[in-house]
Amino acid sequence: MSHLVLVGTSHHRAPVELRERLALGSRVGAGLVSRLAAGGGEAVALSTCNRACVYLVHADVEEARSRAVAELAGLSGLAADELEEALYVKVDEEAAHHLFRVAAGLDSMIPGEGQILGQVRAAWEAAAEEGTTSVVLNRLFRQALQVGKRVRTETGIGENPASVSSAAAELAASVFGDLGGKRVLVIGAGKMGELTVLNLVLRGAERPVVASRSLESAERLAERFGGRALTLDALDEELERADVVVASTGAEGLVLTADRVEHAMRRRRGHPIFFVDIAVPRDLDPAINDLDGCYLYDIDDLERVVKETVAGRREEAVRAEEIVAEETEKFGAWRLSLDVVPAIASLRAFAEDIRAGELDRARGWLASLSESERKAVESLTSQIVNKLLHPPTVRMKQAAAAAEGVVYAETVRHLFGLGEDER
Amino acid sequence: MGEAALLLFWPALAGYAEAALAYAGETIRPGRTARFAVWGVRLGWLAQTALLAAQAVRAEGFPWASWAGSLNLFVWLTVGAYLIWGCRASFRLLGLVVMPLALALFVLAWAAGGAGDTRRSDFGDFFLAFHVGLVLAAFAGFTVAAALAGLYLWQERRLKRHAPGVLRLRAPALATLDAFTGRTIAVSLPTLVVGIGIGFGRLEADGGGFDATMAATLLAGVLYAAYLVLRYEAGWRGRRGAYLVLAGFLVVLVVRIGLTPVGHF
Hints:
The structure holds two protein chains of two kinds.
Chain A: E1 3-10, H1 16-21, H2 26-37, E2 42-47, E3 51-58, H3 61-76, H4 80-84, E4 88-91, H5 93-104, H6 115-130, H7 135-154, H8 164-176, E5 184-187, H9 191-202, E6 209-212, H10 215-225, E7 228-231, H11 235-239, E8 244-247, H12 258-266, E9 273-277, E10 294-298, H13 299-337, H14 341-361, H15 363-367, H16 371-401, H17 405-416
Parallel strand pairs in A: 5-6, 5-8, 6-7, 8-9, 9-10
Antiparallel strand pairs in A: 1-3, 1-4, 2-3
Helix pairs in contact in A: 5-7, 5-13, 6-7, 7-13, 8-9, 8-13, 13-16, 14-16, 14-17, 16-17
Chain B: H1 3-7, H2 9-28, H3 34-59, H4 67-85, H5 92-111, H6 125-160, H7 174-206, H8 212-234, H9 239-259
């Protein structure tokens, strides 16, 4: 019987320096899986910024492990002994369980992160393209993708934002609902501000207006999003129109005071503004938050929100683990049923041969029947064969699920003399 | 009434109580109990509908002319108004306000005999159905609007105070709550005006004096009219508008619970 073997490492066991060495580009990955699958096995290599691992299907666990370790050692430039300390090896259901946890985002640094599901799919597709996947790994990866989707649908693990920039966009949505058509004013052209704007734009906000001390840097950021650039002198006018203000300048003092915002608010007829201040030191006067219709979040406020939502994701992870365990059990039952599949196929072929032979012997008598009568006889004999074989087929599958499949398969082969001609 | 009809009170009560509890559970473990809450609202409302139908059949007319009877009808209309769109996932926290209130008023109606009343009023069924029905429907709308305004103030406070759990226990967006409050009142106010108009028509025809209930109902109407004018013409959105809606609802409560036992429906 073939075994499923996983050899790899992740951020739990290996520092980034080692993970860098094991990073698999598409060409390296293709070569690796081809070598590992040589000789009739199956192989998929999964490489992300947090992990590098290979899934193999091989008759001999030890041989599969040593080949995988040797390949990974060659890739990392380390001696196999040295590398092995950072590697984990998992076999059969344990390996499946690990992949399902990975696909569910349970093995990620931030539980439930969504990117991993795409990476699992890409790894499977790349291996399939190389022709190194077959029955077991195709089933395993297809089920892993289903587990990932199921966990995200049935639990809230991926619902809440896990970064400061996405939390800022979610909070803006808590004020405005749909961000479609909302005007974004960016003060400063810092990297964090850019990420926040990206999150807002992805949720449908309008192209941003970027205000900076230097028009050049404002133009650079505005260009990225197809927005408009201006200098800080035009800020008051833009404040009257903006719905979301993102501040991330490197200025030493306050860039926007509560008085200026209060002045703008008088002209806005009660329309609220959501302010995000991700600059340190802060750009926006904290007193802005006290104004009616103004909501101001600085970097500390946002980090507190993210911390809380990540804690929520960890709570949801408990439910996700239950789903993963249930799916692992299903995979295990399926894998064990593979033990009896050849015996069932042989038994059915044996019965079908008998049926066809007997019909052939009665060919003379059947010739006297009409076309519809002949079809009725064929159908009747097929039904008899199917009904006779149904109970042993079901029992063998049940036995396989209880890990007794091999015994039953051997018994069936012995009783019906299956495969004796080949021996 | 019949005791048979009164038997329907209990499943309705059980549905509303279950919904109120399940909504409370939502605040502890978001996403876990909302489904059960919605089913509680639906089943409770269906049971109460059957209860009202049984009362009407038994009375062969309009049996909710008493204070307690009209309270029973009011609860049904309020939960019905909530059911129209309040059961959506994004509004589940609204149930946290509406369902405990509906539950309390329903118990009050039962305790005062409103769930078992099958007596017909001296007034004509046609007048009662329109006058009482429209005024109570408007009050039900104002109740839902008050719940929306209350939810708005709560969510706004959380956002202003930077509550870390603001994204874990999600409430509808402020703009959505504000818009729905405006729309609910824009529908409820004309309903109230028509209901009041029918009442004044009967007063004109049959004679009768102007009393405190009528004055308070008119005051509520004036407050909600002021809200609509200020909201759409003077930009009174958000907190100020929400406070005005709650002030109007306070008057509705006075009319509904404090004054009507004196001599009205």
